[in-house]
Amino acid sequence: MAIRSRRPGAKAALLPVLLTGALALAACSSGGSSTTSQSGGTAAAKTLVIDTSFDLKTADPGRTYEPTGLIIGKAAYETLLTFEGSDVTKPVPALAESFDLSGDGKTLTLKLRQGATFADGSPVTADDVVFSLDRVRDMKGTPSFLLDGVEVAKTDANTITLTSKNANPALPYILPNPALGILNSKVAKEHGATADTGDKAEQYLNSASAGSGPYTIESFNVSSQVVLKANAKYWGPAKPVYDKVVIRNVEAATQKLNISRGDSQVALNLSGDQVAGMPANLQVKKTASANVIFLLANQDPSVSKVTSNPKFAEAIRKGVDYDGLLELAGEGSVQAPGVIPSMLLGALPPEAAAKRDVEGAKAALKESGEASPTVKLEYPSELTVNGLSFQPLAERIQANLKEVGITVELTPAPVTTALDNYRNGKEELGLWYWGPDYPDPSDYLAFLPGKLVGLRAGWKAGSDKELEAAGDTTAATIGDEARKQAYVDLQTKLNASGPFIPLIQPSQNIVTAASVTGLEYHPVWTVDVADLGAK
Amino acid sequence: MSPTSVPSKDLKAGTAPRKPGRTGRAGHRSPLVRFLVRRVLTALLLAVGITLVTFVLTNLVPGDPVSANLGQQALGDPAIVAQWRAEHGLDKPLPEQYLLHLKGVVQGDLGMSQQSHRPVLDDLAEFVPATLELAGVAILISLVSGVAFGVIAALRRDRLSDHLLRVLSLIGISVPTFWLALMAFYVFFYRLQITPGSGRIDPSMSPPPHVTGLYTIDSALSGQWDVFSSAVGHLLTPALVLALYTIGLLTRFTRSAVLEVLGQDYVRAARAKGLPPRVILLRYVLRSALVPIITVAGLAFGSLLSGTVLVEAIFAWPGVGQYAYKSATTLDLPAVMGVGLVVGGVYLVINLIVDVLYGVIDPRVRLQ
Question: Where do the ABC transmembrane type-1 domain residues begin and end (chain B) (predicted)?
């Protein structure tokens, strides 16, 4: 039997009601203030909020290699050379006022610009440059390969020479990488920086920057947000527009709501579907990214007798419906004619891209001697590239190849697991992507036999001597025009006989508030915060 | 509550009086103290077990942390790979790695995170307060609302309010937290524009000076009332979303526990003696009903902690859930171990508190 008294129940009922009411009131007032602060007021007008899905490990330029880290590095540090806007075909001076590559491509001479200063007001010197570049190379952090075999020397107070053992025409394209940002060596050394593996400066450089860039690091957290503040002593002609830039780690779905409501001004990771219905007051920039998604067919017969058959790769190349993949990837995506993305020197023209030819694919399969083969396709299950998941791509490829007579068993795995098989060259068929380490075609020599990606496809050195020789010649070629042609020829050969089937370059969709100006997508650092202005 | 105050309360509650001989031989310790010591020792053993299980499971994952942490070109350079392995102690045999980790834990060193390159303890000190603030407010809302709703539903059994609360609690239990989080964010932030966006405070504000790491408390301590208002505003929606499941759970369990006690003879006797309904409810009914409620509250706190991972992701809440997710996806062993230890530790503490509360509320438990 229940107690039928109203008093206790009535009081108890009041409690949650009052609580909920109080919470709602507080929420309303806070929500209101947040909106106001974003739309008006002096302080708020100078704060820029960028939402992105963090891929960030450090703010130490010598160890930075993740997309979010490169955005921060680009804002806080300056490099000897840089690129203007999104044009990566022509390096231009930055901290160096001029540069000259010797005729044999082995020596790069740079003249240091006068008047450049660090955030503490001290001048940028040749000693700072030598220390910074030596440090990157010798402390064996992730980006140290950028300067592998490069000797850095100060010729005089304003001249630095970078000497390579072999011709290194890519060096002017490598130097703009924010990982090669110049540190204030005095400050860095005071906090444990050394040009060897014993370097201890990372913790300091994760809390305060020591660069000459237009912004400095106010706070840094690898999982939640990074706050940049304007460098009050910035030496360059274009002063930073925003007093404060907050870069937040936000999931794509939340990014969309934040920017639509005005809580953020830039959203970097929206997929093609997500940008489809954006409000008219927002700017949507869709650019083909520099990430090339490709298939690999393992050439090692001990891994697969089917995929190592040269005609099998041809059957796949002709069997894939590239238009269908582009439809999946959304507007702004383009087909990749070769492994080198469209914006880089030496990229194949769009008309050189493979086209679907089901009958040709069936004929190639017949020539391979494999009747109705079954192969496993491995790919990272949870990885997305520019908002595009690998799962639907793999399913579409499976359906395409079924029409040709190839049965594809999908074998997705978490990226950390899938990477192991990929790295060890154990995948029968693999679906992966490659983003440029630096915007120079020489980065793609890794796809040749015996090289990094070639080995992942079981393509050992000596497997295709003609192609390997062409690779060596191409690597040593000097001069833009000659290099362009050499890389076009090399890719044509690679497409004809190699184990790689370049598929697409998904679109990088960047949404900005109407008030934001100057945004350009960059294949290396995604966005240059210093370029962003306000209407 | 001090242990000495328990016997008189026990007698008041009409439970069995303690026999004088029972405390004598075990080193002059009261049953409650012995009970506590036993529980703490068990908790310590469990903590070691947690570190072992976390370590083994993390190492069983088929994947190489090097692949997860280095860039593609860097992976091709054996010198960089070797340097990275040595830096993170991965060049040592697994048993040695575990023993070193255990030694570190005892010395208060959880190792260096491979993703943040900072001591894991520093990372946790930064992320745990954010989650505690969120989970703490959520559990507070849950306890107050869940128990109140459960009592109301029991007292008004089979009336409209009872039916309504039962339906609401069912919804709270059934709706997936991540969906609710997305919907709450979409409706209240985007459509109705009455709640603030993601994060802990407005992005144009600076966090309050660090005292506890809880923004609401730190901002109040420093007198930054605009930051306080922003922190409370940002906290409410995710906390309510997190709380909904536990509110539903507690409502249902409180209702059934109260209904069961209401049917007991001593409640009838109390009513027959003419005691006021309020006294009967608070002293006789609620106290007896508390044991199952506390059990559920303890379990609910655990599920609430696991729920924070998705809620933190959707609300961009910089808590331990986001840290755990990132650590797991990059096979950051020290960080995963650190998070495992903290979450396991919280579970152990909650279980310990629940066990102790059992003993305090029901003397039969500590006498067993």
Answer: 128-358
Whether B294 maps to a domain, the answer reads yes
Q: Is residue B340 part of a domain?
A: no
B204 and A244: CB-CB below 8 Å? yes
CB contact under 8 A, A416 and B63: yes
| B201-217: b (≥16 Cβ within 10 Å) or e | bbbbbebbeeeebbbbb
Out of A12, A224, A446, closest to residue B152 by CB: A12
Are A144 and B157 in contact (CB < 8 Å)? no
- Our CA-based measurement puts residue A49 at a distance from the nearest CA of chain B, in whole angstroms, of 7
- Residues of chain A positioned with their CB less than 8 A from the CB of B126: 221
Distance from B242 to chain A by nearest Cα, in Å? Answer: 14
B367 touches A at CB < 8 Å: no
Spatial contact of A105 and A478, defined as CB atoms under 8 Å apart = yes
For residue B14, the 8-state DSSP code is: T
Asked if the Cβ–Cβ distance from A8 to B316 is below 8 Å, we say no
Whole-angstrom distance, CA of residue A84 vs CA of residue A531: 10
How do beta strands A500-505 and A334-335 pair?
Answer: antiparallel
B71 pLDDT band, cuts 50/70/90, is low
**DSSP assigned state of A428:** S
Q: Is B285 exposed, middle or buried (0-12, 13-18, 19+ CB in 10 A)?
A: buried
Question: How far apart are the C-alpha atoms of A111 and A266, rounded to whole Å?
Answer: 36
Name the 3-class secondary structure at A502: strand
Number of domains in chain B: 1
Provide the residue range defining the domain that includes B306: 124-329
Q: Which domains does chain A have, with CATH numbers?
A: 50-286+509-534 (3.40.190.10), 292-505 (3.10.105.10)
pTM: 0.81
CB contact under 8 A, B189 and A225: no
**A384-441 pLDDT tens trace:** 888 888 999 999 999 999 999 999 999 999 887 888 889 889 999 999 999 988 999 9
pLDDT of residue B18: 43
- Whether the per-residue pLDDT at A330 is higher than 70: the answer is yes
Q: Is residue B182 part of a domain?
A: yes
Q: Do A264 and B331 touch (CB under 8 A)?
A: no
Inter-helix orientation angle B320-329/B287-314, to 10°: 60
Instruction: Please give the pLDDT value at position A16.
Output: 46
Rounded Cα distance, B307 and B342, in Å: 16
Read off the pLDDT band of B288 (50, 70, 90).
confident
Residue of A nearest to B207 (CA): A219
Q: Are strands A516-517 and A507-513 parallel, antiparallel or unpaired?
A: unpaired
Give the pLDDT of residue B330: 76
Q: How far apart are alpha carbons A461 and A451 in whole angstroms?
A: 7
Q: Which CATH number fits the domain that encloses residue B161?
A: 1.10.3720.10
Query: Which residue of A3, A250, A261 is in closest CB contact with B277?
Result: A3
- Domain-embedded: residue B150: yes
Q: How far is CA A72 from CA A65, A69, A94, A200, A244, in A?
A: 11, 5, 17, 20, 13
- Who among A13, A145, A416 is closest to B80 (CB)? A145
Q: How many CB pairs under 8 A join A and B?
A: 241
Beta bridge partners of A287: A508
In chain B, the residue whose alpha carbon lies closest to the alpha carbon of A454 is B76
The pLDDT score that the predictor gives to residue B365 is 66
Closest CA–CA distance from residue B352 to any residue of chain A (Å): 28
pLDDT score for B149? 94
Distance set, CA A505 to CA A102, A276, B159 (Å): 34, 18, 62
